[in-house]
Known about the structure:
By secondary structure, this protein is of the alpha+beta class. It contains eight helices and ten strands. The protein has helices at about 15-30, 35-40, 135-145, 160-175, 185-195, 255-270, 325-330, 350-360; strands at about 150-160, 205, 215-220, 225, 230, 240, 245, 280-285, 305-315, 335-340.
Amino acid sequence: MPEPRTDESFGGFGPNAWLVEDMYEQYRRDPSSVSESWQEFFADYRRGDGAVSVADAAPAAPATDAAPSAPTAPPAEAPPTRPPAPTEPAVAPTEGPAPRAARPAPLLPQAPPRPQPSPAADGEDPAPTPLRGAGARIVSNMEASLGVPTATSVRQVPAKLLEVNRTILNNHLSRTSGGKVSFTHLIGFAVVRALESVPAMNASFVPDADGNGTPGVVRHPHVGLGLAVDVARSDGSRTLLVPCIKAADTLDFRGFLVAYEELIRKVRTNKIGVDDFVGTTVSLTNPGTVGTAMSVPRLMAGQGLIVGVGSLDYPVEYEAADRRMLAQLGVSKVITLTSTYDHRIIQGAESGTYLARIHQLLLGE
């Protein structure tokens, strides 16, 4: 009988492990609620970390009986009453006008009762909420990433030509197929093509290459490009999925565009499958879409490189300047690229050369 599969034996899901955990819990509740590919995968699946799900956890022990209440103290005796003091004889009123009656004091509105302060307002921290399921897996992934010694190279690229070429391409597509190309499509394709010039960036560290604890490196023959996709969850929180374009280096730009959009469609329609998450060798994340100028993302174990893309805009010192004057001066918008790499197997000169090659490709070379 074959040994049950775990996420580690399947090749590891990296930052997507939380989704596998969620899908597994959904499968256990109702196997027909997940697609056939997930049903086949979970048929002999077992968690690789030995984690116990919320459904597996034992119920909490019943509360013990309350402690007996303290005895009630007997009521204190009332003090003896004093006899009333003798009254003085009435004094006859003097002659003269009768005194004016005092006006009653106006009634003041009563102040509303003061709200009772919450425990947090008194300096006490609220009770923590345990992280389970997807949240717990994200914690495990991030803590595991701390074991990867990384370094980061940064490069600014002028984006004027990139903007012009994208406009020309989209004008052509609007007259033909009706498609549209984004900046991420163009940058992602350049990220893949630049690896042809610097193949050392497409590598992974192996802690035990010969079975005796000797570290090693794997040089991947093809590029599996992981695309970081932001996903809004039903509770209002946000998380990240990283599906993979397999053998991205074998695709021309049209094929790359089709593969990219197909993965995004699967994510948005919740039709992403098991095979879409494995095989990533290099990742691409684009926080510039929400205005982030530059990003140094975390590198997951098993990968050698993650490229971060910043916002596409004028340098901050020119953002308030007149656009016509900027055009006369030849001031271009810029985009900041970062290369965060595993420093055990990739050196700074290789990372810098790699970003320089992306720079050249985005300028049309």
